[in-house]
Amino acid sequence: MSNEPIAHFEAASTLAVVVSSNEPLLFLSEDQKVIAASTSFCRAFEIDPATIPGRRLSELGNGEWAMPKLASLLKATASGSAQIEAYEIDLKRPNQKTRNLVVNARTLDDGDKDHIRLLLAVTDVTVARAEARLKDDLVREKAILMQEVQHRVANSLQIIASVLMQSARRVQSEEARGHLQNAHHRVMSIAAVQKQLSTSKGGNVELRTYFTQLCESLGASMIADPDRLSIAVTVDDSAVEADISISLGLIVTELVINALKHAFADQPTGKIMIDYCSTGSDWTLSVTDNGTGMPTGDDAPKAGLGTGIVEALARNLQGEIQLSDADPGTAVTISYRGASDLQAILPSAA
Amino acid sequence: MYNGKAVVLVVEDSKIIRMGAVDLVVAASFEAVEALDADEAIRILETRSDIDLVFTDVQMPGTMDGIKLSHYIRDRWPPVKLIVASGTAILEESSLPEGSRFFAKPYSDHAIADAMARMLSNT
Whole-model pTM? Predict the structure, then answer.
């Protein structure tokens, strides 16, 4: 053991580097005496620089640095058996709030193997930790609010759906019942998007899941004998924004309702096929039935609300509607072909 | 095994939704009994022994939500069938007693009536 002043061993440049370190830094001897402390350390932890030389780490300030864990970790670092990397400790001082510190320590590698010295960097992360906590709280709060909103929307839609179904059961007129049931289908079609959105992360709606769910629910409520009539959904991996999915869903709803009502009146069996595929920004949606086909001429039915909804929504999506004979049955195709088709004149459906 | 119609207890705090649920139960040819919350539902289950199925909402005022209620019922009245509906779509069916069904709101009346008919025909 040497009683020589420790500063004797140190190069002036080393001490200068330590003192001017921007990050609070302590330069310690093997027995944890402070050789030098950075100005930033003294400022951050309110220690008078004049009181530092020759003191032990445990004697700094009012002794708040006398932390057995830190001392033991520094000892292990000095002996080379451990390293302190981003070790978290709390600095407790009387009448002051606890500070959260992250400490890093290592031995100084200057080629002098006879004198082990330690560099202890101390970062005060109290503010950063508090901010992170606040951010976590906000994120959690946002999730709770989102859930609350979704819950309210779902409940409101349930109220609307319940009222429509109760009215539908009570009215005497078959026609009025049909209209109320259709209104119910439209509400449920939008609700299905809501359900999808609440379970998806990105805010996009996967069309295959959505259309499948939609047609299952339409079929469950409109098809009395599933062995007689069926709905098949073929959709690629497309996912679209919520607004677009609502429009597409309503179009499918209207066309399926229409087909179920009119296409199979005199047929023993029938099938409705929904297809959707997209390439780049182009997409095609088709609803095809193998029913009796659309009456033409004088027999053609007057366009109802359903047709109006389909036309308006297709126009909104800048899609082109095509009505064709599927022989047997009818195919309604709505397609969007890139920006070049923007000028295309939309056919006014019969 | 039933003396006539199966009895369904509807537990829902929203008046209009409850009316709709009762309506769908009656339209499906079951008898409907109503409760505003879990506490009332338990009182009803304690006083009458003919409840075959409980159709409950999740978020309700009172001491228990619909999930707790469903577990309570499964513990105390194991034969009673359970259907749970909630405005929160992401609810694990695994958080419910085994054999119970979950539906996200807004539910389709047909789907609920269908589930009730299936569950009640299995007894």
Answer: 0.70
